[in-house]
Design brief:
CATH topology of the largest domain: 2-enoyl-CoA Hydratase, Chain A, domain 1
Bound molecules: coenzyme A
Strand order of the largest sheet: 1-2-3-5-7-10
CATH class of the largest domain: Alpha Beta
Mean pLDDT: 97
Strand content: 15-25%
Number of strands: 10
Distance between the termini: 44 Å
CATH architecture of the largest domain: Alpha-Beta Complex
Helix content: 40-55%
Largest sheet: 6 strands, mixed
Low-confidence stretches: none
Radius of gyration: 17 Å
Shape: globular
Number of helices: 10
Order of helices and strands: EEHEEHEEHEEHHEHEHHHH
Number of domains: 2
């Protein structure tokens, strides 16, 4: 049914597995479109009570947006990429009336970390690694990372993680409040399903209201998400962004000039 996802519905739990393991499950246009449709299915299908998002293979949850799709994009196209992604996937996950959790089974970098953070909460395997390495590419997070990472770990740690591009392992991510539980990889999905089964025994309308109210707690008077979309797009008009993305694709170190 989907080109880039595997889906499975059992006992009310819809498991969505991003399936591009040879590319570290990077989010290209097809994945974004498939995810948008799969999340619509979560909203619409009464058989689905809760959902899990995870990645195929043992190495990566999602290693970011697909960098190969960034080359040659204009400033407007960059802005559009962030805007459409946020609207069709990340915001839709956050505002879903049914619990959607991330089972982070490896690298969750850039758009992967942002995808996990848009879920209602996160569990991880011991080998999981989280980070927002966009500055290595002359970029900033564009799928909500500047806002959601700050909300989850606080301003100081959020600043440091986004400025240094450092990765944190599962235990540190748990200490920071980025993930709720760390499990051995072989048990990750089963443990995630046990948590969702417990939630499925509670009142669904009350759960939907909790999601809505908790989401409201994060809204400030300034629209940081809109600011992020604009500034993400602005990066596409810089030489540093071409240098950063080309350096990644050419497997060399980027040399930034501040232009
Ligand atoms: N976009 C596009 N392709 C990606 C990718 C991404 N975000 N992340 C990984 N890949 C591809 C690699 O180019 C490589 O493709 P190839 O086999 O055709 O050369 C393949 O996935 C395997 O990745 P590789 O880098 O060889 O694996 P690794 O184990 O050495 O390193 C990572 C794993 C995750 C540390 C590394 O791939 C990485 O740093 N990825 C980019 C992370 C990032 O900057 N994300 C933010 C994007 S905004």
């Amino acid at each position: 049914m989907y080109q880039t996802l595997l889906t499975d519905l059992q006992n009310g739990i819809y498991t969505i597995t991003i399936n591009r393991p040879d590319k570290m499950n990077a989010l290209n246009k097809d994945v974004i479109e498939d995810l948008s449709n799969a999340i619509d299915e979560v909203y619409k299908n009464p058989e689905i009570k809760t959902a899990i998002i995870t990645g195929a293979g043992e190495k990566a949850f999602v290693a970011g947006a697909d960098i190969s799709e960034f080359t040659g994009l204009s400033k407007d196209a960059g802005t559009e990429l962030a805007y459409m992604g946020q609207k069709n996937v990340f915001d839709k996950i956050q505002n879903a009336p049914k619990p959607i959790i991330a089972a982070v089974n490896g690298f969750a970098l850039g758009g992967g970390c942002e995808l996990a953070m848009s879920c209602h909460f996160r569990v991880a395997s011991e080998n999981a690694k989280f980070g927002q390495p966009e500055v290595n590419l002359g970029l900033i997070p564009g799928y909500g990372g500047t806002q959601r990472l700050t909300q989850l770990v606080g301003k100081g740690k959020g600043m440091e993680l986004m400025m240094t591009a450092d990765m944190v392992g599962a235990d540190e991510a748990k200490a920071l409040g980025l993930v709720n539980h760390v499990f051995v990889q072989a048990e990750l999905l089963q443990k995630a399903k046990e948590i969702l089964q417990k939630i499925q025994n509670k009142a669904p309308l009350a759960i939907a209201k909790i999601i809505s109210c908790v989401n409201d707690a994060a809204i400030s008077d300034k629209d940081g998400f809109a600011n992020e979309i604009k500034r993400f797009g602005d990066c596409f008009a810089t030489e540093d962004m071409s240098e950063g993305t080309n350096a990644f694709l050419e497997k060399r170190k980027a040399i930034f000039k501040g232009k």
